[in-house]
Design goal:
The protein is α/β, with parallel strands linked by helices. The protein has 15 helices and 13 strands. The termini are far apart. The structure holds ligand SAJ. Residues 308-400 form the UDP-glucose/GDP-mannose dehydrogenase C-terminal domain.
Length: 417
């Protein structure tokens, strides 16, 4: 079996390398010359544990090569970005998917399989992808197998989850589903879950929408706790002692190219019905403003104006800052002339400074916006360099709060009253 993977990003590249390291001949295709050259030189263009090792192995076995254009193959996997369109509901931008479909069309032959892994709006396979290949003369399910097989891996654990997670195989016909099952059983050890393409699309979106909404519930609870002067973090911890309760963790907002994106695809498909989903997105996107308000209250209590913003990535121990609430908060704080803001993130190159202690030196407040391990146990010497030893830990990760003179969190907010 020979596989073309179109789009060598956070999902496409690990997928390509996983197939290649299971003995499948893989051609990785990307529109970026830089990405192709970097991969051919053995350099992975994304941060992910073990990716350099998997790339080296695949290149050494000659089961993987990267290039700008597709080749004839048995299977074509489309794993390109599907960002939101900046329209009323944030609908799905299919331009990259459509470009990938057009790019592979000349290389397709009867009996081939096309799999869309990109996260797409409900009914995209039925209403757009299927008709595209039918218009090119293929009978879906007989001459061309067509599926949506969404990914569900966690950045930072991608290679493990690609193999161990259950995998949804959403065929346009049952023959397509069976073909997809054969392909993914090359490496999937989790259960292969057979379904239709439309159910596969919406179930993937609902996985992230469920999570986004539950985080919104936790973030709303923080604001209720602020109003009522009740520690929301302790409320959550106790409520979750119930065997069937799992309130998620509040934070400075919701980032990433998944939870902050996918719910809008559902809303765009059924705006009159997706009322709760829209409200959840609004609560999460308003958290940065709430955090900034609390920062100003903390500075009003203790004085000072120098803030060390710790964390720019959208989640702990990775370099991805897409849709990161921390980036939004840092930007808005820097727009306030009275404040001096220095950002530091050990994984994000656009940080203002390259060392934690430099960011903390002479600062009045350490504002933790990301759960990087580096911020859990800040050395006393680094804290000693602060002008005021105050921390506002929006991710509730600091292990020893007594190292600070004052420690705030989303459960211990400055009492506005
Ligand atoms: N977050 C909270 N509170 C929580 C959990 C997360 O505020 O209790 C925040 C994080 O800080 C981050 C954002 O939400 O800013 C998203 O984080 P995440 O841990 O949900 O992870 P993602 O977005 O990297 O990955 C999700 C995963 N989906 C689910 O867990 C249902 C992953 O399995 C998906 O493959 C991925 O989206 C995707 O690509 O769809």
């Amino acid at each position: 079996m020979k596989v073309n993977v179109i789009g060598l990003g956070y999902i496409g590249l690990p997928t390509a390398l996983t197939f290649a390291n299971h003995g499948i001949e893989v051609v990785g295709v990307d529109v970026s010359e830089t990405v192709v050259q970097s991969l051919q030189a053995g350099q992975a263009p994304i941060e992910e544990p073990d990716i350099d090792r998997y790339l080296a192995q695949a290149l050494a076995k000659k089961t993987f090569k990267a290039q700008l254009v597709p080749e004839k193959a048995d299977v074509f996997i489309i794993a390109v970005p599907t960002p939101n369109i900046a329209d009323q509901f944030g609908s799905c931008d299919l331009s990259y998917v459509k470009a990938a479909m057009a790019a592979i069309l000349p290389y397709l032959e009867q009996g081939n399989t096309v799999i869309v892994e990109s996260t797409i709006q409900p009914r995209t396979m039925e209403d757009i992808v299927g008709p595209f290949f039918e218009a090119a003369g293929y009978i879906i399910g007989e001459e061309l197998y067509l599926l949506h097989c969404p990914e569900r891996v966690l950045p930072g654990k991608i290679f493990e989850e690609l193999v161990m997670n259950n995998r949804i195989i959403g065929g346009m016909t049952s023959a397509c589903t069976q073909q997809g099952k054969r392909i993914y059983q090359t490496f999937v050890k989790g259960n292969v879950l057979e379904t239709s393409a439309s159910i596969a699309e919406l179930s993937k979106l609902m996985e992230n929408t469920y999570r986004d909404l539950n985080i919104a519930l936790a973030n709303e609870l923080v604001q209720i706790g602020d109003r009522l002067n009740i520690d929301a973090l302790q409320v959550i911890a106790l409520a979750n002692q119930h065997p069937r309760v799992n309130i998620h963790q509040p934070g400075p907002g919701v980032g990433g190219h998944c939870l902050a994106v996918d719910p809008y695809f559902v809303v765009a498909a059924a705006p009159e019905d997706a009322k709760l989903i829209q409200l959840g997105r609004m609560i999460n996107t308003e958290m940065p403003e709430f955090i900034i308000k609390k920062v100003e209250e903390i500075l009003a209590i203790h004085g000072g104006n120098k803030i060390a913003v710790l964390g720019l990535a959208y989640k702990g121990n990775i370099d991805d800052a897409r849709e990161s609430p921390a980036i939004e908060i840092a930007k808005r704080l820097k727009q306030k002339k009275a404040l001096q803001v220095t950002t530091y993130d050990p994984y994000v190159a656009t940080s203002d400074v390259a060392h934690l202690e430099v960011a903390l030196t002479d600062s009045d407040l350490a504002l933790i916006l990301c759960d990087h391990d580096a911020f859990k146990d800040i050395a006393p010497a680094a804290i000693q360099a602060m002008k005021q030893k105050i921390v506002f830990d929006t991710k509730n990760i600091v292990t020893d709060k007594t190292r600070f003179d004052a420690a705030y969190s989303l459960g211990a907010l400055p009492s506005a009253q």
